[in-house]
Design goal:
Length: 246
Amino acid sequence: MSHHFLEVKNLCFSYPDGTEALRGLSFRLEHGEAVGVVGANGAGKSTMLLSLAGLVMPSEGSVNLGGMILSKNTVGEIRRRIGFLFQDPEDQLFMPTVFDDVAFGPLNQGLSASEVTARVKGALGDVGAVHLEDRPTYRLSGGEKRAVAIATVLSMMPDVLVMDEPSSGLDPRGRRLLICLLKKFSHTRLIATHDLDLVLDVCPRTIVLHEGAVAADGATEEIFQDRGLLEKCHLELPLCMKGEVH
Ligand SMILES: Nc1ncnc2c1ncn2[C@@H]1O[C@H](COP(=O)(O)OP(=O)(O)OP(=O)(O)O)[C@@H](O)[C@H]1O
Ligand SMILES: [Mg+2]
């Protein structure tokens, strides 16, 4: 099933220590949209993404992926449909070698050995990390771990990409490869990031989070022109727009 929408209604979540991280978020993504999620540290971006994949269970509200409502019964199926990139690559990588990590998803999908190998080579090629294939994952550099983590998501060929800080730690070439593949990906993309230039480049639409709520949701170019909004939400202009707005 590839023609998903993703609809979130009144999503609320508090951590066990009482921190209210999400305070009633609502939005709807249509199939094929590329949407940036921006906001200051602690605004709720990661918590929101985690709750979409049922990695934290919302205390109120609903998540509807293509007609399937997130619940304890559907969480497995929803996770299989969403390609989820964690903010911290250490949460993503757990196998002894890079090959094994990138092969893990395709193997679970029941593909043959030759198909799995093709998926691994393709995904590592997309992120410029073919040369790391046989390396132990825990001995990679930070940026290498990020690239391999992205490859583990791509190798599953998901219908929806949900990525938390995908460009963080990547060198300029890695970042350029990431931007190219995000632009090429034809399904829905939801990308939380502090890299506002990436958002401007990849995402026609942006959701701004502030203190666990949606402060704005609209055309990226308009949002980045709104100085009052950016200031209120502790955001700065993308580098490429600095000098355009005074
Ligand atoms: N495990 C946790 N236990 C308690 N509070 C948490 C936990 N993780 C996050 N929080 C709190 O929840 C709120 C939202 O955090 P979240 O990680 O979603 O923010 P973020 O927008 O992703 O920030 P960043 O840009 O730093 O990644 C913050 O107030 C944070 O301190
Ligand atoms: Mg975060």
